[in-house]
Amino acid sequence: LPIKNTAPTIAWDALSTHPDISFSAMTFGWDAADLDGNNTIQYINIALNDTNNFVTLNGAVTVVAIRTSDFTNSNPLMDIYINGDPHRLPINPVKGDTIKLPGLKFNSNNIFYVRAVDISNAKSPWISSATQPNSNPGWFVKKPQSNIALVNNYSAYDDPGTFYTDMMTSLGWNYEIIDLVNQTPPY
């Protein structure tokens, strides 16, 4: 009987959405499968804004959190946390250094890409954050302008009004606002 390899498939998992605007951290999750057996998925490729500039992760990875704290570089590299765990960083098996994701654009719309690769080098099509359910195409990554963040998690009935922003302004401090009420975070 002739045997034919099938390419893996990949889709966003049910929880994977992103807000319209964020700072330089985001989490993505996907479901990869292969008719020849999910254990044949050897690699996961991820890319940010350019699929020609991807990094390769272990095929068992299904969730990553990406973030950077390098705000002085116009082309910062992003840390990759497997399952969102800052202690689980992907390591380059050849060089032994930590793999980082290039391609972030501050104060611009960004698109995250992912695909699966099996042991025969058959590849799924790239899926992008532009096609995530319940999300706008890509997401705008704000470059922080301050070391202080005010987190708005007040509901309408216990809203402090402008107390905190007035206080920061009166002290002359620069600050950013993270609004968890009007823009609930994914995951």
Structure characteristics:
elongated, 187 residues, mainly beta, 13 strands
Question: What is the element string, with H for helices and E for strands?
Answer: EEEEEEEEEEEEHE
| Discrete helix count | 1
Task: Give the end-to-end Cα distance, rounded to a whole number of Å.
Answer: 45 Å
The count of strands amounts to 13
Cα shape: elongated
Q: Proportion of β residues?
A: 25-35%
Q: Over the alpha carbons, how many angstroms does the gyration radius reach?
A: 19 Å
Uncertain residue ranges: none
How would you write the strand order of the largest sheet? 1-3-6-7
Mean pLDDT: 85
Can you summarize the main beta sheet? 4 strands, antiparallel
Secondary structural class:
mainly beta
What's the oligomerization state?
Answer: single chain
Query: Helix coverage percent of residues?
Result: under 10%
Report on the architecture of this protein.
With 187 residues, this protein is mainly beta. 5% of the residues lie in helices and 32% in strands. The protein has one helix at 163-171; strands at 9-12, 21-22, 25-33, 41-48, 55-58, 63-67, 79-82, 108-110, 112-118, 127-128, 139-141, 149-152, 176-179.
Q: Which secondary structure elements does this structure contain, and how are they paired or packed?
A:
Blueprint: E1 9-12, E2 21-22, E3 25-33, E4 41-48, E5 55-58, E6 63-67, E7 79-82, E8 108-110, E9 112-118, E10 127-128, E11 139-141, E12 149-152, H1 163-171, E13 176-179
Parallel strand pairs: 2-11, 12-13
Antiparallel strand pairs: 1-3, 3-6, 4-5, 4-9, 6-7, 8-11, 9-10
